[in-house]
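Suppose you are handed a protein chain with no further information: no name, no annotation, nothing but its sequence. What can you learn? This example shows the usual starting point.
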Amino acid sequence: MQTASGPDGQPGGKPPSLWQTIASVAASFFGVQSSKNRQRDFTKGKPLHFIAVGLGMTLAFILVVWIAVRLALRSAGL
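A reasonable first move is to predict its three-dimensional structure. Written in structure tokens, the prediction is:
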């Protein structure tokens, strides 16, 4: 079984940054996550960070769709 290692080959390493977490969640929305990033996320990432970013991005997506529908209905005269 392989263990996660940092840049110096020692176990551990830094957890993903905020931008790396956002990129990982965005990739998961489309289902295109690299094996290297997935391994980093599962070995060094904190689940709560991914859950929080995922919920935020889901709410943002719902808000964008809601606004688009409102604009489309308004332009159709409904």
